Amino acid sequence: MQTQLVAALDIGGTKIAGALVDGRGRIRLRAQRATPAREDGETVMRAVAEVLAELAAAPQWSRVSAVGIGSAGPVDASAGTVSPVNVPAWRDFPLVARVRRAAGGLPVGLVGDGVAMTAAEHWQGAARGHDNALCLVVSTGVGGGLVLGGRIHPGPTGNAGHIGHISVDFDGEPCPCGGRGCVEGIASGPNIARRALDGGWRPGPDGDASAAAVAAAARAGHPVARASFERAAQALAAGIAATAVLVEIDIAVVGGGVAGAGDVLFAPLRRSLCDYATLSFVRRLTVVPALTGTDAGLVGAAAAVVAPTGAGGAAGIADAV
User: With b meaning 16 or more CB within 10 Å and e meaning fewer, what string describes 178-209?
Assistant: First the structure.
């Protein structure tokens, strides 16, 4: 008997990725489009539909039992809508209904991208075996998700753990979310790069002005590049420590493209955490890199749709598919 599959979508401000995922979390087929994040809402939806159409054209599509979506947030899983901060044209966009239509009526589940990454890390990654964890996606934006009492805790609308919009600087810059001084406004990749450029760092001959290029410069000792990452690390540490005090997590798992900076990010992050996680019950909090890599959003979206409460982790998806 052939194993059933789940179609997964990972929707962010930079790319829309899709995959067919089996019960072991293995990706059997991929599709991807750039996110036309500055275009109108229907143009963004067309990119999503193109990814689904590419997956649906494969013979394996006949074995797909459901579609799981991990989207940049905020999302409203109960209403099936999304309002990603980094996709301005989508405000209360009825993504679940539109994907269900594009997928021929298959069941569709929605979680925030941070919750999807958390599901993947708790199933197969660095949070495996931990009953209380925070998992972060630090990329174009900053998202997060929680494991509490051994189960994924998405919250009523699917946004629990959305650390990117905790305010850590009351006098900081306005955030597109409507707040001020949010973690995302300091620690996301584009903001790390912007701050370095504002401070006088300049890209090399290739013109690469990304956070990855800033990380390379920091690794080579450029003081402005290092300062930009240290500021990002401080913001992340403040948000992580606040979460730990509230819900007593014992591990924070950091993934996403910015985590690829390695010690340029993690060394100052761990130092800053010592300054913020000072109460006795959070002093043992550890911070580690994610293990599921760039596929975390896809694997987690699949896991979340077949086990929406997070119960069972790997068992949940395996049993369902």
Answer: eeebbbbbbbbbbbbbbbbeeeebebeeeeeb
